[in-house]
Amino acid sequence: MGRTLLFSLLSLSSTTLLASTSTKGLDEKINDGFMPFAVWWESLVLAEIPIFGHSIPVVLIILIVGALFFTLYFGFVNIRHFPTAIQVVRGKYDNLEKNQPPLQPHVFEVEGDLKDTIKDEGHFGEVNHFQALATAVSGTVGLGNIAMVAVAISIGGPGATFWMILAGLLGMSSKFVECTLGVKYRDIDSKGNVFGGPMYYLSKGLKEMGLTQLGKFLSIVFAVLCVGASFGGGNAFQSNQAAAQIIERFGFSGASSGSIIGLVFALLAGIVIIGGIKRIAKVTEKVVPFMAILYVGASLFIIFSHIEWVDDAFGLIVSEAFTPKATITGGFVGVLIQGFRRAAFSNEAGAGSAAIAHSAVNTAHPASEGLVGLLEPFIDTVLICTMTAIVIILFNMDGMFVYGDVVNGQALMYDGSRLGGVNITSMAFENSISGSSYVLMAAVCLFAFSTILSWSYYGLQAWKYLFGRGKWIDLTYKIIFLLFTVLGAAITMDAVIKFSDAMILAMVFPNMIGLLILFPKVKQEFSKYLKLIRRP
């Protein structure tokens, strides 16, 4: 049955690919037909309620309130234990974990093995702390850090940066909670393969709390949304934007250019993802530092090249966070919403996706990976997004575009033209360093590729939760995923991308319900781990 399903899907996908590349306008027809449903889904996920005279998405309120609660409940773990998190990633406590058993060993549920023998076999995960962090960071650090930051500043002005940073700091606490739970409730089979993420802590954790049926329902909903998000926002959108940058930068022409680029992306991604999380982790631990150094290095060069303007840029960030220009729609609340919204969409804190990668870590102590996880929003939002914001603000010191005037993600330039988010950032780089837009293009490709790798793992774990853990089940997902990589680069399907991106945000609803019920379990694990590392 598995093989029949696989060949049927391959036949359908191949037919779709051939039709889309050979029939002129077919992708536009599909897009137009699907758009009404995509718009309905997006409006449902981003449903708004009026607060202080402004319409605010419910999902954003849930993210902010949840993150603020976790920050207060755990005593500002995002600030007070930031140094501890650095030490865990550096491996300072690795020997301590190996030499001493957990204070209260967690009993893993194991397929085909006795529950109480797993701790003797030493199967505590597949990757180290740094690899887990690199894989998770590669899933969140993407085009949102380049394009969406430009959109946020275009709409909300420099002040949006202040609220974006604050949202990133609060999001660190949410990541701490979900990553701790991801390790605590994961499954590890007799071979040491890890299966984890919100699907597992929603079902197993809520079962412990006497909420079995709620846990089953939420875990299935999350898994379905995660699979859909992995095909679209985590894959097709990434290859589409990377292909667009390559075609524009090198002036490629012809209908087949996107297909060829997509095939190259799919080939490279396939080589990696077929090897599973260990190979993904080995690649991301090399790619993530490189792309971060490349992008942050270029940003810092631009910032220091305009050092005389940096204090003015920070002054605008702080002052316009509370007293924005009159041209900014929504005033103070509008700026706040833009900052929090873009940060939440960028670092995915509260969506639960990163907990899937962190669950694979080789540790016997869940809270240790919770601490590692809190570094992720800091890297993604507080560091990289802020770098982008400062470069764009410096670029606009001479008034290149009009704050508050954005249509369909494009900002109004004073010469009358309109530019999208990526192009604004590209102009900011090129204006400061001739030829640096090519560096940005390389960063876009690396960000897109690393995001594809991470989301392939996220989607596969959710797929396994829904359909089982057989070899053909795995292969079916991976082939479908790679076909979407090609399709994303080859065709224009805005409606599918809109639908898939909304799926990522929709993951917040089942995940945050679980976090707000299970947070006392995190407190227990955190207390045990702190006692362990503080022992003389």
UniProtKB/TrEMBL annotation:
Compartment(s): Cell membrane
A Pfam family the protein falls into: Na_Ala_symp
Bilayer-spanning residue ranges: 49-74, 132-155, 161-183, 217-237, 257-275, 287-307, 313-337, 378-397, 438-458, 479-497, 503-522
Keywords assigned: Cell membrane, Membrane, Signal, Symport, Transmembrane, Transmembrane helix, Transport
Membrane topology value: Multi-pass membrane protein
Signal peptide extent: 1-19
Entry's family note: Belongs to the alanine or glycine:cation symporter (AGCS) (TC 2.A.25) family.
PANTHER family, sorted: AGSS FAMILY TRANSPORTER, SODIUM-ALANINE, TRANSCRIPTIONAL REGULATOR, LRP FAMILY
Protein name according to UniProt: Alanine glycine permease
Species for this entry: Flagellimonas marinaquae
Lineage, opening ranks: Bacteria, Pseudomonadati, Bacteroidota, Flavobacteriia, Flavobacteriales
Gene that encodes it: dagA_2
